[in-house]
Write a structure and sequence with these properties.
about 200 residues, alpha/beta, four-stranded parallel β-sheet, 10 helices, about 50% helix, globular
Length: about 200
């Protein structure tokens, strides 16, 4: 299946450089090669609180559902315990009509952790459990790693370069980030099951 996917990020301005290559790898692992993945840029949600409003997501669904197979909302968990339940609510409240599917999910704790999962040259002394447990891994781990790679002054602070590299190691990302594996399974199930079975 050549899936057409619209990714809705809490703020696409930086997240698009992480999400487009990694979601492309995820969708292709789930349903086969040839996925067309675009990040929603209209509207700019500008933050997680906007991405968790059913009315905002309903408007996006209404605008794009005829053009894509899947609308995928991805936000950071940011250590917030209730965020999963809120995403489930948004998914129910903004559910599309027709053949399009809406999935709302989260990165633990930020999407930059998915990038780090794809790297094989993380500094000695860094422990994966610490990276996963850190509430602010972007500041504590991703930014120092990008600096070590000489990318902190590059466009998007290295996200574009590093995320494309991580996407080439997608299996490693999936193995280290259980939410990525679970999301891949959801995408496979929702896109490959007949509409009547959903």
């Amino acid at each position: 299946m050549k899936a057409k996917v619209l990714v809705v990020a809490e703020d696409f301005r930086q997240d698009q450089y992480v999400l487009k290559p990694l979601v492309t790898a995820l969708v292709e692992a789930a349903v086969g090669p040839g996925a067309v993945v675009e990040v929603c840029k209209n509207p700019l949600l500008g933050g997680v609180s906007e991405a968790l409003k059913p009315d905002r997501i309903r408007a996006i669904v209404a605008k794009y559902q005829a053009m894509v197979h899947l609308i995928l909302i991805i936000v950071d968990r940011d250590g917030e315990e209730g965020r999963r339940a809120r995403l489930d609510f948004v998914e129910r409240e903004a559910s599309p009509t027709g053949k399009c599917v809406l999935i709302a999910d989260l990165a633990w704790q930020e999407v930059e952790v998915w990038v780090l999962a794809g790297m094989t040259d993380l500094p000695k002394g860094w422990r994966w459990k610490e990276i996963r447990a850190e509430r602010d891994p972007k500041e504590r781990f991703f930014s120092p790693y990008a600096a070590q790679r000489g990318l902190s002054q590059s466009p998007y602070e290295g996200r574009d370069t590093l995320a494309r590299e991580a996407a080439r190691s997608y299996k490693r990302v999936r193995d280290l980030c259980e939410e990525v594996a679970a999301l891949e399974a959801r995408v496979r199930d929702r896109l490959l099951s007949p509409p009547a079975a959903r």
